[in-house]
Amino acid sequence: MRAPEADEHLAEQEPPSKSARKRAAHAAQDLGEALLGLRERDLEALDLPAALLEAVREARTIRSRAAAARQRQYIGKLMRHIDTEPIRVALAARSERDAEETERFKRAEHWRARLLEEGEAALEPLEALHPGLDRAHWLRLVRTARAERPAGSATQGPAGRALFRALRALLG
Hints:
The protein is mainly α. The chain is 76% helix and 0% strand.
């Protein structure tokens, strides 16, 4: 009968199971597919090996469904031979930045809709959030945007877009 420590030592020496290898291969391929959605400058910032970078660029140009699937598998194969942790960290940071940007966009859109709906009355809570707000300037922006917008229309003209840009700058 073996001691429990000997069983642990043997378990450490055994190669990973076939299922574990397949999970790792699928994870590498999924990470490689995430690279396909990056902009070129973000892709270059990751400092990927030349073969992987070229494979990702090639995959973007392929239109055949079967060929694209083969290329994604090839990218997954290349991914299995490199340390993927820096790529995971970079993609997670990018995802977090995208989520923050989306939240800022929604907040600015909410305030624009509120200012267009309520007019001058909505400036008071905005002023409370941002003391020192140039009320005359903001009142002019809101009035111009309200005047150019047809009743019941969801479309924005130049003044509505200018109001949105000003809100994005104010809300950070």
